[in-house]
Each structure stands twice: as structure tokens, then as C-alpha cells.
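Catalogue entry: protein

Sequence with per-residue C-alpha cells
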Amino acid sequence: MPQGGVRGRIVMTASPDTRREKVKLPAAAVDAVQLSRSGGIYVVGWINDVSDRLDSLDLYFSNWSVSLDGNSLARERREDAEVALANGGRHPYGWWGFMFAARRLPAGVCSVVLRLKSGTELSFMVTAEMLEDQEMRKATLTHLVQAKYFGNPYFDAVAAIDAAIGEQMADFNKMLSRRAVNAPYAERFGATGRSYKGSIIVCLYGKAEYMFLQQALFSKIPGIQDYEFIYVLNSPWIAEQTLREAKRCALIYGLDMSVVVLNSNAGFGAANNAAAQFASSNRLLIMNPDVFPYDKDWAEKHTMLIETLPHEQTALFGAPLYYDDGSLMHAGMYFCEDTMPVFAGHRKRETSILRVEHYGKGAPPETAAFLKPRPVPAVTGAFMSVQRAWFEQLGGFTQDYVFGHYEDADLCLKSIEAGCLPWLHDIRLWHLEGKGSARRPQHEGGSVVNRWLFSRSWGEMVRNSLLGPQPGYAGLGGEAAP
């Protein structure tokens, strides 16, 4: 109370004719709030925060609430907002966020509060939509890869998820992968109770027809009877077709095989880990469905390698792969780093992400320098042979990666970290790269998340001694490159 004031008396602090200037709120919209059955939270909208930055986003439901920091939201270009604002300036008006709460949250009407740095608040009433978990994964990954940016789309997408969304997506995907491999269905075709030189594990997604072709071509080579095939199916909607194809293959070509059907798409890493549990040998051969024998004595060569060479050369190794035009596709992999400036609002920063490259890609088929047996930084998951005990000691493939990309390089780096370099041995294979499955926008979004995750997980180790075709890592000694 003012000094000398009297309680109950009205005190005028401004002239009655004075009009308070009305606060002008910035234009904004909330396009969608979506929840998933297992606790995914996905929000999309835009705001004109050129002069007053978005500080936080709060969701208030009847019995729960959550607050997302403004820095955790991905920012993107919104051409519709530019039209609505009659402003063509280079500002990312769009925003979206994703969070995995790891618990089921009731949907319904919610209040969305956008809070700006000045303390100004904008409130919207929105009815949250409930999605299945797989649909939310598809929606967020598709959004990530189809969003518009002012800079390089790929680097801007990586930068957009770096603060928080990437980690949340990886955790959400890991939950889905664990669920997908729970209680798989397995059916055996051919002999049972045998021991084998190796178990060839092939992950199928969306296409069953490559099984028949692969069985036909491998059945012709001597020594293949010492191996079993395990096909793991990431597409339960074609389970009946796949099991029918497997029965035909067993009757026509006579190779021992199993089919493991998962209840949904677990991704490359989790699917191969699940299939490995059904192996009847001490050697796992990870192979794509569009990989076929180049050498007629391929199986005998592989057997000789694992039986005569020392452990450090056979614990984990790959092989030269060839395109269908006869040129070399793969003779080991090495790591590069790409750096690009990223402009977010009025800020500029650099984003650096790792990339894998193939030794000898596109080279003539008989380029001896690329074909010589040698240690390499990594080999492709299109074909890798790994001692089962070593695979299990490494924890198998890391299951954080979405769908499939970078799990192979991740496993190789885990092997190097544990003291054993990957090798390349000259047992050649054809690889019809990319023909064994269909790529959709969500898969491209998954690749963005995977490259971000791989860079975050292994960036320090790779930058220290494994960058480039001639890395300085002890043991490689410049031998990896020709």
C-alpha cells in the first residue's frame, strides 16, 4: 500500500482517458498433436518468432502435462507461413518435436502453450490424435526427410535432431525392435540335428522372390551342403508367401534352411540378432538376399579360410563384392567426415558427420591391389563372416539403428575397440545393391537418424586414428588401402 494511503479508497494511477495499448501477439499455429500407444509424443506447428524467440512448448491434458524446451524442437522452412505472413525472409517459422515418454498417455483435448523468451504466451486448444507406434515412427521419419530447409537438406536434417529428437527417436525405435523380435515363429525345412561349418543368415524385407534365386545359385556350388540358411522375415504380411517359397526351395534344391518370422519390422540389426539364436553352427555369415556366389568354389574357399587361418584374421571378415556390370563394388570400407555450415535462425554453426566409403568402388574387376587379403577398418553387412562366440562377445549388432544402415560399421568398430581388426578375404560375391528391398521415405529418414547416431557414438574414436583410406590406426599400418 502506498505510504499514507487509506484502505478502502480508490486510487487512480492513470487518467481515465488513457488507453492501454493492446499487446499484439505473433502469428502462430499448431497443426497437430499426436500420441502413440507406447508413449510417443509428436507435435507440429509454426510461429513468427523472428523478434521474440520460442522458448518452450507446453502440453496440458486433463491429468498430465509435458514441457519441451524450445532448443529441443526441430526448425524448418514453412512456405505456407511465409505466404500467410507476406514475408519471404530466410527464417525457419516451422517447428516440430518428438519425445518418447515410455508409458501410455491418455489422449483427448489438450492446451498447447507456446512461450516466448519475453514471457509472452500463446494458447491453443487441440484434440490429440492417437496413432499406432509404427505409424508414429513412419510419420516422424517421413517428416524429417521431407522437411524443407534453407541450407543443405541432409545436413540441416541432422542438425535439426541433434539437440534432443535424435536420441528420442533411437530410444523409441529400440523399443519397437525389442517388441518385433519377441516370440518369433520359426519353421525348419530339410535336415535337423546336423552340425554345420556355418549358418548363412539372410534378412528379408518386402520381397520373398530373391530367396528362390539365391537358393538356386548357391545350390550349384560344391561344399554348400556344409552350410545352412536362415531367412529372417521383417515383413509378416508376406509370411505365407515366404514359407511357401521356402518349401519349394527345399524340395527343388535340397539345402537345409529355416525361416524365422518376426511380428513386425525389427530392422537389420535386431532381425539378424534374433536369427542368430536359431543357428546350428559356430560361424555366422550375414548376407543380403541380393548377394550370389561369384566363384564356383566359394563355399569350399570359405571353409578353408575359417579352418586354416588364425583367429585374428577370421574372427570378422568380408569379401569383394561386384556390381551386375562386373565392376568392383566393395573391397572393405573406410571412414570419412563431412562438415557443412548450418544456419538456424540467426545462428551459424558447423555440423560434422561421419560417412562410410568402399575401397575400390567402380574399379575394374581384377584390380589386384583391392583384392589382396588385408585388415580393413570395416566391411559391409551385405556379406560378413563372423565367429559366433566373437559376435556374442561384442553383443551382436547394436539395435538402436532404425531399419538398416550403419549397423555393419558399428559392429566392426566394436570389434576394433575389443582388439580385433576386420579383414577382407578374396572369396568373391555378386551384389545387386538395393534390389533386395524397397526404399520409402521413412527409410531415408531412418538413414539420417542412423548417420547422426553413428557419428555421435564413434566420432571421437574415428577422428583420432581411423579417418581416411589410409588411417593411422595401429595394426592397419597403411595396409588397408592399396
